[in-house]
Amino acid sequence: xxxxxxxxxxxxxxxxxxxxxxxxxxxxxxxxxxxxxxxxxxxxxxxxxxxxxxxxxxxxxxxxxxxxxxxxxxxxxxxxxxxxxxxxxxxxxxxxxxxxxxxxxxxxxxxxxxxxxxxxxxxxxxxxxxxxxxxxxxxxxxxxxxxxxxxxxxxxxxxxxxxxxxxxxxxxxxxxxxxxxxxxxxxxxxxxxxxxxxxxxxxxxxxxxxxxxxxxxxxxxxxxxxxxxxxxxx
Length: 234
Known about the structure:
Strand 6 and strand 7 (206-208) form a beta hairpin. Helix 2 (49-65) crosses helix 5 and helix 3 (80-97) packs across helix 4 (107-120). The chain is built from six helices and seven strands. The protein is α+β, with helices and mostly antiparallel strands.
């Protein structure tokens, strides 16, 4: 079980609404929708209203520190069906990477692969007490782009299943490229934290406000319940 699931939820009722995309860049086509992920009646570009307000604040602050840069949205709201789809998809990727056949794979091998999957993907739990962060409308996956709409180098791709995805992976590296990656990641987290977001401890791209992970990250300095629980799928 993810450690942040110990945090209670006191749902505030903030609505799930479309992100005003005119203020941001987006990855197009949407990477999960392009795979066939079942989003239903909502696009991936929805968030709770309070989260959008803070994302706009982050974008505004970014302009003060890097005027030519912009937040690019990779993914936001994720129905449980999409969460399950991506867990299954990632498991299939690992099977192929290890040249394993589902017909002959052992229970131990499957458990090992699923442990890798759940390092980066929250279980698609229907339990109201343990919702995946993206299914609350409070979590967002982002990166940064420059004035030419080119990605700012971060040292790994979003969703990469490797140690390079950890936010501080390049912190102690001394070569120039690694130092640049760390500086760019530091800029991203600084901008998002300025707006009140918390960063996932294993993913440089994942930020949230108001969900269980966010409350868990603040538990030492500002202990409180989560504000956002699961959104019912349409």
